[in-house]
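(Fold this chain)
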Amino acid sequence: MKKVLAILTASILAAHFAGAQPLNNTRVDGYRGIWFTLGQESSYGYKYSGGFGTYTMKHIPLAIYSPETDKTFFVYGGTTDKGDRHLLCMAGCFDHKTGLLQKPTVVFDKESVNDPHDNPSLQIDKDGYLWVFVSGRSKKRLGHIYKSDKPFDITSFHHIKSWEMTYPQPIYDPKRGFFLNFTQYTGVRRLYWSTSKDGTEWSEIKNLANIITPGDTKSGHYEITGYDPVTGKIVVTFNRHKNGDCDTRTNIYYLESSDWGKTWKTASGKKVETPVTTLDSPALILDAQSKGQNVYIKDVNFDSKGRAVVLFVTSYGHKPGPKYGPRQWSVARWTGKEWEFHDITTSTHNYDSGSIWVEDGEWTVIAPTGKGPQLWQTGGEVEMWKSYDKGATWTKIKELTEDSRYNMGYCRRPLHAADGFYCFWSDGNPERLTQSHLYFCDREGNVFIMPYNFQDEWARPIPLAEAGKEFAVYNKK
């Protein structure tokens, strides 16, 4: 199966790019997500695969609500409608006043690349300009920064900078400018940051973590970052890859900075020198390695006091299937004195991925925790979980999708999420190449499908409840 898919994809892409021009700043007649497989196949399918328009959780943020315009701007990994896997880094917009979606724009055409590790992330500056950070892949595919030509406008972008940058996680503060967390393959995967007042000139990069234990020859880390504009605090949570192997990711480390990266501290205020190099660093908040567990960090958010809340999944191996379960969803909360850990639920795959909202005593997790039609593979049915006691106990209050044709995955939280566009994700069959649709839901969990095809500048999203009539029964078995 893997060889056939690779040959098919290569032939399609070769034909597509014979004399083709890049599609940068081209408007696209619909929201079409990218399908992907890593290609590591086992008896329970690929290590991860399916609709990956909102992949990875390490591209942060993908969407931002703008109160000035009452619109949510978002980016995603798109593709053409030619049955291929040609990655287009896309920008879209939802108007909360009208309830309409704008025709999306290709910010950057990845041309021969079909890998959504190169998906974009987004920021908006104090003047309303949209900044799109396109991920690269080591030195063989550089990352790029693009800026919109007009404030609060997705119709055209221009190039700002190209450099080695993977998994971009840009933060913006109106007074300080940009703070960018990202990865470079110097270790195998090492964490870095850089700052910029204007997005054009960037500071020298600095290394955040480089843990190598006796017997290791390489380091490796994945990070999830957050920013609390009230306290001005940057938070970085990261795991550790034993000897640089991302299939051995384990532990959770936590650092925060209130002075734009000049100093880093633990949650209790103890100063930590960077890069972090020791396994038992004071930054360690969860020792999963001693239990033989893998750790997959999904999201980080803040309570009303600016204290961090971390959403993560643990398992007992990187391969899919029941042998390496349970895939335990949990939350870590800093109380002001200590870290508390509480379980939420379980799901069937390491790469089932969702987000956490922390609002006024009500915590919400939206994630594909329900069993999907392609069991034991990436994603599932999307469910909403609530906690009213700071994460101590959780209740499933709603199944957002059910009886779906394909698995749903990578449910993402917009920055400053507003009621009408509260979370968005994509679908796809993890077993084979299919079309991938994009979805979003409102705060109550009502789900809408982004039209795969439309001609006008604005289009109305399709309520999932009406999909049988308006969606050609695409999403029903």
